[in-house]
Design brief:
By secondary structure, the protein is of the alpha/beta class. The protein is built from eight helices and twelve strands. The strands form two sheets. It has a six-stranded mixed β-sheet, with helices on both faces.
């Protein structure tokens, strides 16, 4: 029976195992999906050796960029993005190849499209990690300018966010883990009072369904999106990759 899974450092927040287990049951697919918390990304090679049925796995915080040196190769979009959230395991005899893909940008783009309108020309992207890279790539494909915000002085910082900047960016995307269970009271420090009814607030976090970021935003706009739709869409894209005969 084929085995799939997800690797990361802390996986208490992950819904992937529930999602795929339900999918396998509903579609009578003879497969299993497990969580594989790794203290170090270097352990991924050992994981693939000791689990001969492992055919593919998802990658989450903090390994979306750290895994790249351990891969045999990258699909062009993953190379362009500079981050990987999906790995296909290809076995030939005793040889193991790991091929990296990015399906985050697919899930984000497809889940965002129903909310877009011609006024959305620029977006604030909160965070600069692996997930952020996929979001920036997706926005570029949608012809939306991405403005990165972080605590790093080399970028636009949170304390530099003025009401004017908020007004110029009608889409704001949180790519940080702030607000993820169990730390549900955390949220990015932006001037929420500057939001308008035209703003679209997208939080990649999906546990809880309504984060503090979205709760704070709900006082000013009803255009709120959590990360569940993105999770499902990127998971289905990963499933297609794992089961494709092509690399």
């Amino acid at each position: 029976m084929k085995l799939y899974g997800i690797i990361g450092k802390t996986l208490r927040h992950s819904f992937s195992q529930k999602y795929f287990t339900k999918k396998f049951e509903n579609e009578s697919i003879p497969a299993a999906f497990n969580v594989f918390p790794l203290k170090e990304i270097a352990h991924v090679a050992v994981l693939c050796r000791i689990l001969p049925d492992l055919a593919g796995f998802s990658v989450t915080i903090p390994y979306k960029t750290e895994i790249i040196p351990y891969l045999t190769g990258l699909y062009p979009t993953a190379r362009a993005i500079g981050a990987v959230n999906c790995v296909k395991v290809v076995r030939t005899g005793n040889e193991i190849e790991l091929w990296g893909y990015n399906t985050d940008y697919v899930g984000f783009s497809e889940s965002l499209k129903p909310y877009l309108n011609p006024k959305i020309t620029s977006a604030l992207v909160l965070g600069t990690g692996g997930a952020s890279k996929a979001i920036v790539f997706a926005l570029e494909q949608l012809n939306i300018r991405a403005v990165l915000v972080s605590r790093n002085a080399e970028r636009l910082t949170y304390d530099q966010l003025t009401p004017e900047i908020i007004a110029d960016n009608l889409l704001i995307v949180n790519t940080t883990p702030l607000g993820t269970f169990p730390n549900i009271s955390e949220f990015p420090p932006i001037p929420y009072h500057a939001l308008t009814a035209e703003h679209i607030m997208y939080d990649l976090v999906y546990n809880p369904a309504q984060t503090a970021f979205l709760q704070n935003s709900s006082h000013y706009t009803s255009n709120l999106i959590n990360g569940m739709a993105m999770l499902e869409l990127q998971a289905e894209a990963a499933w297609a990759i794992w089961n494709s005969d092509k690399i």
